[in-house]
């Protein structure tokens, strides 16, 4: 596998959430708004990349029979660090994510990558794998977050939990902006589906997104099967034509 | 034997390096975290007593080291009906809020934390100097979010303005979020008891 393939596999082909359904706990719990989803994703990228690097560095040193507790200690160290750093520099995000920051330790994606990839591969490859998988995880969280926030509020807000680039929260996008061009009294929040900010909404949103992805994937597979079938039919036709030609030759020779 | 020693040594090294890293990061972030928590605390106090943003406040609580107390001039003595205790009331933290401009007492805040079947609830109960409840705020919670939101939205405001008297305080009987509201009422009751005990002393 090339380095590019190693990096990109986490986005679509082996996406932790959309394909392997790993790390579903944060995918459901912290994606009510786009910002918390992105924040959790960034923390996971750091933990996953760093733990993959350290596990890969120590892969020949850690005895096999204690590898899992050793990996857990390494992961827990980085989770503790991101917990402290987020508490110091993104305090609102820390409060919003709450217990889900320490729970990164038991995110099966992180231990899974340490066990299945980092413990068997070189440091650079492990770092690329961790970073790519982390980005894929973040991408999935952000997709769910945007979907849920948009449906539950009618817009997307930036600056409430991640205090970067803006002093006050700003609306990145809202349907109000478009509809108010025609009707000034319209408030999208009155028509938003609040359910999507709640726990049942998380399951429904994830279900819809997974259905869309699986639907697309199923169509692609169906198309591939059709192409393969056509190819087989063509090959059969060619084989039959060859057989017929051979039979004709035999007949003529006789 | 040697392999076991190696295993122990490796685990010891990993633990030691982890501990060292956490120590360094903690050393860097601790002052910033302390400042963040302080600002959050002041934010809660401002919310409870509806203190304008430009007004500065001083607070001191029963957990503060007596040597760290902000000196209060004689004017305060006339306004204060009871003094800061040496120890906290049982299960609560008692905090006195003062206006920094003239050191006058604004009110008292009691913080209590209670465990229930859904987790923990941390509640701040603010009492004005006239003995009425200024506000009740849920500052932290691991209870079901919807129940907490429901209580915050509908069942905390009725406390505002009620006299902090165990005989007169009124609670709602049907909230639909019994555990969360039960913890809130327990802490409000404890706060009122502590306030009255403090006043008597």
Layout of strands and helices, then pairs:
The complex is a heterodimer of chains A (254) and B (201).
Chain A: H1 3-8, H2 24-29, H3 34-57, H4 67-89, H5 91-97, H6 108-118, H7 123-153, E1 155-158, E2 170-174, H8 175-179, H9 199-253
Antiparallel strand pairs in A: 1-2
Chain B: H1 2-49, E1 57-61, H2 74-79, E2 92-99, E3 105-116, E4 119-128, E5 133-141, H3 145-155, H4 178-200
Summarize this entry quickly:
With 254 residues, chain A is mainly alpha-helical. Helices cover 66% and strands 4% of the residues of chain A. The radius of gyration of chain A is 25 Å and the shape is flat.
Number of DSSP-assigned strands of chain B: 5
Count of separate structural domains of chain B? 1
| Strand ordering within the main sheet of chain A | 1-2
Low-confidence spans of chain B: 69-82
Structural Rg of chain B: 21 Å
How widely separated are the two ends of chain B?
Answer: 67 Å
- The domain count of chain A comes to 2
Strand content of chain A: under 5%
User: What is the averaged pLDDT score of chain B?
Assistant: 81
> Taking all residues together, what is the mean pLDDT of chain A?
89
Question: What characterizes the major β-sheet of chain B?
Answer: 5 strands, antiparallel
Largest inter-chain interface?
A: A-B, 23 and 20 residues
Using only CA atoms, what is the Rg of chain A?
25 Å
Please tell me what the overall shape of chain A is: flat
Q: Kindly state the number of beta strands of chain A.
A: 2
Helix content of chain A: 55-70%
Give the end-to-end Cα distance of chain A, rounded to a whole number of Å.
56 Å
Number of helices of chain B: 4
Strand ordering within the main sheet of chain B: 1-2-3-4-5
**Number of helical stretches of at least 4 residues of chain A:** 9
């Amino acid at each position: 596998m090339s380095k590019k393939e190693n990096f990109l596999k986490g986005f679509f082909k082996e996406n932790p959430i959309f394909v392997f359904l790993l790390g579903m706990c944060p995918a459901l719990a912290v994606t009510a708004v786009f910002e918390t989803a992105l924040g959790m994703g960034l923390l996971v990228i750091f933990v996953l990349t760093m733990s993959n690097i350290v596990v890969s560095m120590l892969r020949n040193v850690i005895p096999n029979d204690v590898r899992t507790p050793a990996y857990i200690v390494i992961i827990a160290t980085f989770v503790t660090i991101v917990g402290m750093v987020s508490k110091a520099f993104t305090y609102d995000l820390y409060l919003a994510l709450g217990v889900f920051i320490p729970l990164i330790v038991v995110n099966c994606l992180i231990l899974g990558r340490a066990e299945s990839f980092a413990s068997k591969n070189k440091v650079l490859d492990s770092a690329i794998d961790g970073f790519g998988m982390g980005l894929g995880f973040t991408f999935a969280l952000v997709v769910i977050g945007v979907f849920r926030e948009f449906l539950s509020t009618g817009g997307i807000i930036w600056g409430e939990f991640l205090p970067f680039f803006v002093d006050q929260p700003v609306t990145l996008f809202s349907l109000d902006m478009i509809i108010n061009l025609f009707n000034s009294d319209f408030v999208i929040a009155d028509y938003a589906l609040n359910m999507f900010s709640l726990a049942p909404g998380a399951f429904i949103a994830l279900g819809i997104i997974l259905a869309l992805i699986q639907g697309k994937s199923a169509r692609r597979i169906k198309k591939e099967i059709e192409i393969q079938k056509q190819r087989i039919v063509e090959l059969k036709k060619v084989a039959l034509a060859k057989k017929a030609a051979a039979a004709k030759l035999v007949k003529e020779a006789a | 034997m040697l392999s076991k020693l190696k295993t122990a040594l490796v685990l010891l090294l990993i633990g030691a390096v982890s501990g060292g890293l956490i120590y360094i990061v903690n050393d860097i972030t601790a002052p910033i975290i302390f400042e963040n928590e302080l600002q959050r605390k002041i934010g809660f106090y401002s919310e409870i007593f509806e203190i304008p943003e430009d007004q500065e406040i001083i607070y001191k609580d029963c957990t503060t080291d007596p040597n760290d107390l902000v000196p209060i001039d004689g004017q305060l003595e006339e306004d204060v009906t009871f003094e800061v205790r040496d120890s906290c009331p049982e299960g609560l933290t008692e905090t006195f809020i003062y206006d920094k401009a003239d050191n006058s007492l604004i009110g008292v805040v009691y913080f209590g934390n209670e465990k229930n079947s859904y987790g923990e609830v941390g509640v701040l109960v603010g009492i004005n100097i006239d003995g009425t409840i200024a506000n009740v705020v849920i500052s932290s919670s691991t209870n079901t979010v919807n129940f907490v939101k429901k209580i915050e939205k509908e069942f905390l405001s009725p406390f505002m303005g009620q006299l902090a008297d165990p005989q007169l305080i009124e609670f709602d009987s049907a909230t639909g979020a019994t555990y969360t509201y039960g913890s809130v009422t327990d802490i409000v009751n404890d706060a009122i008891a502590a306030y009255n005990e403090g006043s008597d002393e």
